[in-house]
Design goal:
Helix content is 74%, strand content 0%. By secondary structure, the protein is mostly helical.
Length: 268
């Protein structure tokens, strides 16, 4: 127990040291680049660091994960330091906020409420947001800046948590067929705006299919992109060995090599 307490104190000192370093970097004696940053200028860095964490997880590079998480934490600390300087809040407020939220949203852990399954927890989580956090809509809290597939997935999950959902996947397949037919009809009509709208509805229906299958659509699409990338590069390599570029090949030739690449993958 003494060792654990000492470890906790050591971690607290490490975190305090991080806050001190960030404050120094922003001070007149610090770094010119750090002093120039604003909440707005750091937006893209925050996004990139989050994606690098995701990439490390996807590639199972767990030895790199502490460093990537540290880079992401730095963004949080940086924004907190900017807020300190503006007199808005500090890192203590950030930590207090998340502590309170975790306790409030887990009454089955910190209170007397009974929740047995993860699905029940999702429903209670959304109810808590509506009743105790003043959310006006069940789908509030889904940032517009999210990638479209992720945003659609999160919004559908939130709507489902309050009962706006089909009880089984059958009607979802019917809806997908309906959206395909409406897209084809829009194409026959020739109005680009209508085609775009119907294509969006089709994507939205596909996200709903993925939700029922318990597959994150963003993850599924990323895997498909990675698979395409590997196969396309393999095709380029085949033609390069022949001293040719893809622009010199016919579509039938490229398709034949594509199928061969697929067969090699399946036989591995």
């Amino acid at each position: 127990m003494t060792t654990e307490r000492n470890d906790a104190r050591s971690r607290q000192r490490d975190f305090s040291r991080l806050l001190e370093i960030m404050a120094l970097l922003r001070s007149p004696a610090g770094c010119p680049w750090d002093r120039e940053q604003t909440h707005e200028s750091l937006r893209q860095h925050l996004l990139e660091e989050a994606y690098e964490v995701i990439e490390a997880i996807d590639e199972k590079r767990f030895e790199d994960l502490p460093g990537e998480l540290g880079d992401l934490l730095l963004q949080v600390v940086f924004h907190a330091q900017l807020a300190v300087e503006a007199g808005r809040f500090d890192m203590g407020d950030v930590i207090e906020h998340i502590n309170d939220k975790l306790v409030r949203r887990h009454p089955h852990v910190f209170g007397n409420e009974k929740i047995e399954t993860a699905d029940e927890q999702i429903v209670k989580w959304e109810e808590s947001k509506m009743k105790k956090e003043g959310k006006k809509s069940a789908i509030d809290g889904v940032p517009r800046q999210l990638p479209a597939l992720v945003r659609a997935y999160r919004m559908q999950n939130k709507a489902a948590a309050v009962g706006f959902d089909w009880p089984e996947i059958g009607p979802v397949w019917d809806k997908l067929d309906e959206e395909v037919a409406e897209l084809q009809e829009a194409l026959r009509g020739g109005r680009q705006e209508a085609v775009e709208e119907e294509l969006g509805d089709l994507f939205f229906a596909m996200v709903n299919i993925s939700r029922f299958l318990k597959i994150n659509p963003e993850d599924a699409l990323r895997r498909a992109i990675d698979k395409f990338s590997l196969r396309f590069r393999a095709i380029e390599a085949v033609f390069a060995q022949q001293g040719r570029s893809l622009s010199d090949a016919s579509l039938d030739e490229m398709d034949a090599v594509w199928e061969e690449v697929k067969r090699r993958e399946q036989n591995k």
